[in-house]
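Q: How would the structure tokens look for this protein?
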Amino acid sequence: MTEPNISVVVIGRNEGARLVRCLESVRNMRWSGAIELIYCDSNSGDGSADRARAFGSRVVEIGTGRLTAARARNAGWQLSSAPFILFLDGDTILHPEFVTNGMAKFKDDPRIAVVWGHRREMHPEASLYNRILDLDWIYEPGLTEFCGGDALMRRVAVQRAGGFNPDLIAGEEPDLCRRIRANGELILHIDAPMTGHDLAMTNWREYWMRAVRGGYAYAEIAALYRNTSDPLWASTSRSNVIRACIYVIAPAAAILIALVLRSWVAILLFLFCAAALIGRTAIRARRKHGSFATLILFAVHSHVQHIPVFVGQLRYRTIAGRHGRSELIEYKRPA
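A: Here is the predicted structure in token form.
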């Protein structure tokens, strides 16, 4: 058999039909070279592993122990044999041209270790949450500090950096990218479509838990690199604590002052400041979307999310204080 020059590592847990769409998109990508397809399943109960086998995938089933996306990604790339590895989440659809566009960038500069493109929501119209969080995926192209779960990487760079940290329940990609950059290698975000994502978020609880998971990752990774020359997410963690406290205390203080003074002035002043802050955020994000209404919703999300993110940080510090480790924080319903 021809040796593969691309290994595609797909990870998933109870993705069902979403996984089938992902594997179909890999099959349909425009690439003339040999492809190796590996699916790593994290204890799914919906037959995902069997569906992947039906596509001719090599399947790794992780059914025991602590489940993390990092552990699944490691199982995949360590089994792979190609010099380049495309990592995909099982709830995405690969753009047919991304691999061709991405591979060309590796030829431009041997220091480039990771190439990633644009990930966007496939169904932003399906829910308010999809519509808002779609804008979270938009980043300026160019050299970056990190990538997301979908990315094309040099195998040697992943190996040299030690792979993904299997102890992290989230944020494993920025953590790996931090170690890749420490080796003098580069992360490149190209101005080209990469994947469509199916967030499938329909309620507040899912939104809240997703943000809690993000906060847990901020705190855990900030603690991991606290005393280093590149303290990843330390400033992000501190900023979140300050903002969350302000966003909780400010409205409570305004209501208390209004009750004591028997005047609406404090509440009106708070509402004016909140509106001004949201408006400024929406204006700064105007490159992300053409609809002002969507930008306002995104601006509200940008500030409101600090509260559940702070809860996630508290969760990490509480568990770490007891020398424990959190299990996977799941927010998504099975497909």
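Strands lie at 6-12, 35-41, 58-61, 84-89, 92-94, 112-121, 142-144, 151-154, 186-197.

Residues 127 and 202 are 6 Å apart (CA to CA).

Upvote if useful.
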